[in-house]
UniProtKB/TrEMBL annotation:
Membrane topology: Peripheral membrane protein
Keywords: Endoplasmic reticulum, Heme, Iron, Membrane, Metal-binding, Microsome, Monooxygenase, Oxidoreductase
GO CC list: endoplasmic reticulum membrane
Keyword Nucleotide-binding part of the UniProt annotation: no
Protein name according to UniProt: Cytochrome P450
Length: 151
């Protein structure tokens, strides 16, 4: 479930790398002709766009934690999902960050009753277009937190 959340809303929207050798990418669909990238070219990798590419993630708007079952992961390119980057320059704190996300979820569920603000989720969650680095909902949170106990 955490991996699917990170697919839909990665911590960063892009990452950059320097191409180290001549490569040709694309060409897997009619509307995506192959592109040659020469060694030394800076490349911006749009994580959000790649994580929402129907070629790798069919029906990308749908929240589906089963995308990250071992069986489904084996069918997909290993770099189709990289919320913390990949390779030797990936985020050094990604394991710590994942642990903190899981601990935060546990803490919230232990301390709060979590309910839908209006009794049902919105049809579509629009993102704030002014915040291009972190994804935040345009119209605020649609969930409510009620404290369960006093500290």
């Amino acid at each position: 479930t955490v991996e699917e959340c990170l697919r839909k809303h990665p911590p960063g929207t892009t990452t950059t790398r320097l191409c180290t050798k001549d490569v040709e990418i694309g060409g897997h669909t009619d509307n995506c002709p192959p592109i040659k990238i020469e060694a030394g070219t800076p490349v911006v990798l749009p994580m959000y766009s790649l994580h929402n590419d129907p070629y790798h993630f069919p029906d990308p708007e749908r929240f589906d934690p089963e995308r990250f079952s071992e069986e489904n992961k084996e069918k997909r390119h290993p770099y189709a999902h990289f919320p913390f980057g990949a390779g030797p320059r990936s985020c050094p704190g990604f394991r710590f960050a994942l642990s903190m996300v899981k601990m935060s979820i546990i803490s919230i569920l232990l301390d709060f009753k979590v309910t839908l603000r209006d009794g049902k989720p919105p049809e579509k969650i629009e993102l704030n277009p002014m915040n291009t680095f972190f994804h935040t909902p345009k119209n605020g949170l649609w969930i409510k937190f009620d404290k369960l106990r006093q500290n």
